[in-house]
Amino acid sequence: MKLSRNELKKLMKNKLMQAGLHEEDAEITSEIMTWSDERGLHSHGTVRMEYYCERIFKGGITLEPVYTYKETGPCSAILDGDNGIGYAVATKGMEYAIEMAKKNGVAIVGMANMSHSGAIGYYTEMAAKQDLLAISFCQSDPMAVPYGGTEPYYGTNPISFAAPTADERLVLFDMATTVQAWGKILDKRSRHETIPADWAVGKDGLPVTDPDLVNALVPIAGAKGYGLMMMVDIFSGVLTGVPFGKHVSSMYYDCSKGRELGQMHIVMDPARFCGLEQFKERMSQVCDEINAIKPAHGFDKVYWPGERAVERIRKQYEMGGIEVVDEIYEYMKSDDIHFDRYDHKNRFAD
C-alpha cells in the first residue's frame, strides 16, 4: 500500500489518539514516525505503531506528564519527562538545547524518565535547521552481546549527529551501535523476509537469517562497536541518573509501567568557534568533495551522510507514495487498538 505523507501521518495520529494519547503528543509522534517512513527508515515508522498503542492503552506511557526542567549551569540542564511519550520529551529537550546553545554557545541537555523516542536523527536535524551542530545519544534495553560475551548487556544504543551547510543540504548521520537496529528485524518480520547472517545470533551464539530465531544482536566492528555502546549508555543512562546497561527496562516486558529511559542532546553554535559562515561554507565544500570522489567498483557514487535519505524521499513520492505493509495499513484503519502481541514478552517480543 502506498500513501501520501498526509494520509500516513493522519492514520498514525488518529490511531495514537484512539489508544489514548493526547492530540499534541500524537501530532509530534506521528510527524516523526512519518519522517522516518518517508526516508525508508521503516524500522522506526509504522512497524512500531501497534506496540506504542498497546503501551499507551495499558498505562505504560504517562498521558498527562508533568515535565520538570532544571538548568544546572549556563550550558547544562536536565529534563525529567515523567515517563511521557519519548518523541515529545526528546523534542522538548532539543528545543531547550537549541535555545541554550544560541544564548551561551554550547548546550548539554539530558532527558530522564521517558519512553522510546524513535529515530534520533530527527532531533539533531532540528538543531541543524537552526544553523547549529548537534549530537544525540540514546540508550535502549539490553539485546546485544558485548564483544567476547554470550549474554546481552547493552542495547542498540544509537548515535546521531547533524550539521548545516551553506545551501539546502543538511549532513545527518544516525546509526545503531549494533550491525542493525532491532526495528530493522521487526520490519523484516512484518514483511516475512530473511535477514543477513551478520545481523544477529541465535541461542547457540551462531548467526541466524530467520528473524524469528534472533536471540541477540551483535555490535558493529566487534570491540569498537562495543565501546561505542558503552559510551552511549554512560552519556544517556549513567549520567542522567536512570537505569543503565542490563538494568534498562525491557521494551516489552510490562507495558503497564514507565520505561525510565535516558537520552542526551549536545548542541553547539559554530559562530562561537570558526564562525557560522565559514563553517557552513566548509561543510558545503566537504559534501562537494565527497561527491567528487571516484566511486569504488559496484558503487555509483560516494554519498555524504543524509544524502541517500533525501533520494529515498524523492523516489518514494515519484513511485506513488510511502510504502506501508498492507497488514499494518489495515490495522491503522481499523477500530482495534492492539492485539496483545507485546506485553510480558521477552526482548524480541517472543
Unreliable spans are none
Q: Quickly count the helices.
A: 10
Mean pLDDT: 95
Q: How would you classify the helix and strand content by structural class?
A: alpha+beta
Helix content: 25-40%
Termini separation comes to 27 Å
Order of helices and strands, N to C?
Answer: EHHHEEHEHEEEHEEHEHHEH
Radius of gyration: 20 Å
User: In the CATH hierarchy, what is the architecture at level 2?
Assistant: 2-Layer Sandwich
Principal-axis shape: globular
Number of strands: 11
Proportion of β residues? 15-25%
Number of domains: 1
CATH level-1 class: Alpha Beta
CATH topology: Ribosomal Protein S8, Chain: A, domain 1
Most strands sheet? 7 strands, mixed
Within CATH, the superfamily carries the name Malate/L-lactate/L-sulpholactate dehydrogenase, NADPH binding domain
